[in-house]
Amino acid sequence: MTSYLVFMATIAGIYALLSLGLVTIWGQGGMVNLGLVGFYAVGAYASALLSMAGLPIGLTLLLGGIIAGAVGVVLSYITRPLRGDYLAIVSLGFAEVIRLIATNEKWLTNGSDGLPGIRSPLKAELGALHPWFYLAMVWAIVGVAAWGLTRLLRSPYGRALRAVRDDEQVAAVAGKPVLQLKLKTFFIGAALSGIAGGVYAHLTSYIAPDGFVPLLTIYIFLAATAGGYTRIVGAVVGSLAVVALLESTRFIAAAVPGLTAVQVASLREFVIAVSLIVIMQVKPEGIFRSSSQRSGSEGMRRPAATAPAPTPSTAINGA
C-alpha dihedral over 266, 7, 224, 140, to 10 degrees? Predict the structure, then answer.
């Protein structure tokens, strides 16, 4: 039971990194990104392949994040004329393209068979203590990322970014470099997702295209929405809440008599979907609401054409 809890706490840390990337791009930058799992996959494969080439794992995690961030910059530049639902659809398509490339380019990714034997740091040296070490390492990365983002978003860069999110045209008239801010923000968010992918690859020592499905993006949107999609602390707390929800539904569904394994899995997904809908309707601003958000939920439910910033319902509808 202890090993199970340690593993799930590690997964929660990986989700927290993904949620921090989403909060950066969506909550602070106003760009609805449904392609998180694509950057996650890029970082995972890049870090795994580089480590297999003999590079130190710490360096491969960093390089995997940089590669994923660079891919994010390219995607952001290509889609710069798009807004709202259109950007969401294109980013979702990007994630599926990455998964198909991983499936078909066997010379690079070993196709649907996946990449086995990925090294994990100090696994042989630590033995039974390795899961605890990896848990501490993951949450240390989350802590550094959260601290760095907090400092960055409180800087003039963060204030300019929120100005672009709230009204892009006014920010441009005020002299803010809108495109440059968007590219930098996409790089940061995609790099965090890439680092999360690398951490996952070295945790499981095996990755395959089936592990990078769009459903993971929905989990991260649920985490960000539950915690408060503009808040750093909301991303972390929301990730813990989502992992707890996912695992509790596993036991609850299994306790229902007369259900097959397929029906149990379907019931879990149903509970998760209902949870997302309830959160968006009852508390769309999340647990930790931003001071800039309106006191009522009416402003959160305005149509995307008139709302100054993307909302959770707009993002999911864009899926």
Answer: -170
Note the pLDDT tens digit of each residue in 125-137: 888 899 999 999 9
Residue 42 lies in a domain: yes
Residues 192-214 pLDDT 10s: 999 999 999 999 999 999 999 88
- Asked whether the beta carbons of 243 and 8 are under 8 A apart, the reply is yes
- Domain count across the chain: 1
303 within a domain of the structure (yes/no):
yes
Token pair, residue 120, equals 């994990």
Average pLDDT over residues 160-177: 89
Task: Give the residue carrying structure tokens 């068979």.
Answer: 113
| Domain of 32, in residue numbers | 2-213+293-310
Q: Facing residues of 206 across strands? A: 116
CA quadruple 37, 40, 45, 46: dihedral, nearest 10: 140
Q: For residue 227, tell me if it sits in a domain.
A: no
Which distant-in-sequence residues (6+ apart) come within 8 Å of 187 by Cβ?
A: 69, 70, 72, 73, 76
Q: Are strands 115-116 and 206-207 parallel, antiparallel or unpaired?
A: antiparallel
Q: pTM value?
A: 0.86
